[in-house]
């Protein structure tokens, strides 16, 4: 892996996982030392992260991790509803029923992924990513897929706000199963309705988590 790609992937993960919290200044020199690379790969990584909206210009040769705000979260979900309902409709029309029926069964059994042996819930989130990928493939729309991938970068960071809510994760697993089952049945209206229910509940869970975090006057959210 090229040094610039490694720097980009490491910093991107740190931002999405909140190891680098919103508002954090990230120094080019410090990151080069931490990652064991020259400053050029870090500079290239900063440029890519800036194009994705994860950082913005900071002091000197550094960048600042962009804020997460309640306003932005709501805007993301407005776009998410439009994109994901359309993707679900296309997948219901074009997808292989067996693929989504199997996904639905696995998602209904997601309790096995949400026990104490998998504290970071990685197995569950990998299954959700698999479902997203299958929907993208079934939809057969490159532009729609690209738009969703860009949005998912920011949603990954937002999702951390309610990630510790095990009851919500269990409910989300069944909601994902309902979406997959409707797609597998080829039922466009049911698939879109299932997506709307899931996204409404997901947004509410994030907003419910906000009071547990620190607010600034401009509604930005930082970890407490």
From TrEMBL:
Family annotation (Pfam families): FCD, GntR
GO molecular function: DNA binding; DNA-binding transcription factor activity
UniProt keyword annotations, A-Z: DNA-binding, Transcription, Transcription regulation
Stretches assigned to the HTH gntR-type domain: 1-68
SUPFAM superfamilies, alphabetized: GntR ligand-binding domain-like (SSF48008), Winged helix' DNA-binding domain (SSF46785)
DNA-binding listed as a keyword: yes
SMART domains listed in its UniProt record: FCD, HTH_GNTR
PROSITE patterns xrefs: HTH_GNTR
Recorded superkingdom: Bacteria
Name of the featured protein: FCD domain-containing protein
Phylogenetic lineage: Bacteria, Bacillati, Actinomycetota, Actinomycetes, Micrococcales
């Amino acid at each position: 892996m090229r040094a610039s790609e490694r720097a980009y992937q490491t910093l991107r993960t740190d931002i999405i996982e909140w190891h680098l919290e919103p508002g954090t200044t990230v120094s080019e020199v410090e990151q080069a030392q931490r990652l064991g690379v020259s400053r050029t790969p870090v500079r290239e990584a900063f440029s890519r992260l800036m194009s994705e909206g994860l950082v913005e210009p900071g002091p000197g040769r550094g960048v600042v991790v962009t804020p997460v705000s309640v306003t932005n979260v709501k805007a993301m979900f407005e776009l998410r509803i439009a994109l994901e309902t359309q993707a679900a409709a296309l997948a219901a029309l074009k997808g292989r029923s067996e693929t989504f029926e199997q996904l639905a069964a696995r998602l209904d059994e997601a309790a096995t992924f949400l026990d104490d042996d998998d504290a970071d819930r990685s197995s569950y989130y990998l299954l959700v990513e698999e479902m997203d990928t299958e929907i993208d493939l079934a939809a057969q729309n490159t532009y729609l897929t690209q738009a969703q991938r860009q949005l998912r970068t920011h949603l990954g960071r937002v999702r951390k706000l309610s990630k510790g809510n095990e009851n919500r994760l269990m409910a989300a697993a069944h909601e994902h199963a309902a979406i997959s089952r409707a797609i597998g049945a080829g039922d466009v209206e049911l698939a879109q309705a299932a997506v709307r229910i899931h996204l409404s509940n997901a947004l509410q869970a994030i907003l419910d988590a906000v009071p547990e975090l620190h607010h600034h006057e401009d509604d930005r959210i930082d970890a407490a």
